[in-house]
Design goal:
The chain has 98 residues and is α+β, with helices and mostly antiparallel strands. The protein is built from three helices and four strands; from the N terminus they run H-H-H-E-E-E-E. The strands form two sheets. The chain has a two-stranded antiparallel sheet with strand order 1-4.
Length: 98
């Protein structure tokens, strides 16, 4: 079994780097854009939730990459929201290193 430290972090790859990695795995070039979109536009980090990708690719992503080295620390309360005088809101989340 490969440890998380030995696997590249998927979220750290640029679109070009992701394209090279997926082409080396035998995937067509357009798959990189699909995966990148799931990760950076939709915020989805679970390959199983990337429903327009083939099951084999989803399994490959989970096996060959660390999706994110941080895990969200689940809490019973919703994330803390802070408001500024300008009316903007920021969310505070807790993360822990795997």
């Amino acid at each position: 079994m490969v440890t998380h430290a030995a696997r590249p972090i998927l979220l750290d790859l640029t679109l070009d780097q992701l394209g090279v990695a997926l082409k080396q795995a035998g995937q067509p070039g357009y798959r990189a854009k699909q995966v990148f979109h799931w990760l950076h536009r939709r915020g989805v980090v679970d390959p199983e939730a990337m429903t327009d990708l083939p099951a084999g690719l989803r399994n490959s992503l989970a096996e060959q990459f660390t999706i994110h080295p941080l895990k969200h620390k689940r809490r019973r309360k919703a994330p803390t929201a802070a408001s500024s005088s300008a009316g903007s809101r920021s969310m505070v989340r807790q993360w822990k290193l795997c």
